[in-house]
Design goal:
The chain is mainly α. It has 12 helices and no strands. The longest helix has 26 residues. The termini are far apart.
Length: 272
């Protein structure tokens, strides 16, 4: 389980879990679960484009993550945010279909980006993911108070000079960056569960923002560590265990909340 080829998996999965736990706290608090689901799906076509150009897929992921943020932000200026997110996702997936049709050697990579391939992470992938982790975490902590204020009380935030629109754009950028780095590890279909499940459980267990964020990171770490261990022992896909444990952690959080746990205020999810 700790042989040389597994070390990369443990390192990268740990980095992804920490970022997912921190960013996921704000995903849940801001009711942005739909954006957390749509952005990973909208960025994976970038890897298809990178494959056609013969460059590192991470660059394509970051580029399309940026396009997703711009599209969501601009289309949502005068309309419903979830509609803008859906339209942006449709446009990006359309481009992804075109890129995939132009490539005949991309099937395995597509599978990895959809469902993750943490055991296939190479040593050369660690440094870029580590840098992206530091950037995502640093940006989140730099904007921690404004993001928290705009999520809990947008009116109070505006009164204190915190622009709700600017915070929304900043948060989407952080979320896009975080999903880009997590995509090759847990996949587009499962990064959502890693960000939302642990964070939702943590929010139900405490009303202290910093404590909830740390708890979210802890649950996220336990999720990926347990997923890797169980995958190694059973030879089942890591993604299956990530999704299952993420759902289980959310269920435990709900039970905790109904039995007297406290919760942070949270806006209605945008997908509602």
């Amino acid at each position: 389980m700790f042989s040389s080829f597994m070390i990369n998996a443990w390192i990268v999965a740990t980095l992804v879990a920490v970022v997912a736990g921190i960013v996921g706290f704000f995903v849940v608090l801001r009711g942005s679960s739909f954006a957390a689901h749509a952005l990973p799906l909208g960025t994976f076509p970038g890897a298809a484009a990178a494959n056609l150009l013969g460059i590192n897929p991470l660059f394509g992921l970051i580029l399309f993550a940026g396009l997703g943020v711009v599209g969501t932000s601009q289309l949502g200026r005068r309309g419903r945010h979830e509609v803008a997110t859906a339209l942006t996702l449709v446009m990006l997936l359309g481009l992804g279909t075109l890129f995939l049709s132009l490539s005949r050697e991309y099937s395995q990579s597509v599978y990895a980006l959809l469902f993750g391939e943490v055991l296939g992470v190479s040593t050369s992938d660690i440094a870029p993911i580590a840098v992206m982790s530091v950037v995502a975490i640093g940006a989140t902590f730099l904007l921690f108070r404004p993001l928290l204020l705009s999520a809990i009380s947008p009116e109070l935030g505006e009164a204190r000079g915190v622009s709700a629109r600017h915070m929304e754009l900043s948060f989407l950028a952080i979320l896009a960056f975080a999903t880009s780095m997590a995509l090759p590890v847990v996949g587009a279909l499962l990064v959502f569960s890693l960000m939302v499940g642990p964070a939702a459980a943590a929010r139900a267990m405490t009303d202290q923002p910093v404590r909830a964020m740390l708890l979210s990171v802890g649950i996220s770490l336990l999720t990926v560590w347990a997923a890797i261990s169980l995958s190694y022992l059973s030879d089942w896909p890591v993604g299956f265990f990530v999704g299952s444990i993420g759902a289980l952690s959310y269920a435990i959080g709900r039970v905790w909340g109904r039995s007297g746990g406290v919760r942070l205020p949270c806006p209605v999810p945008e997908s509602a």
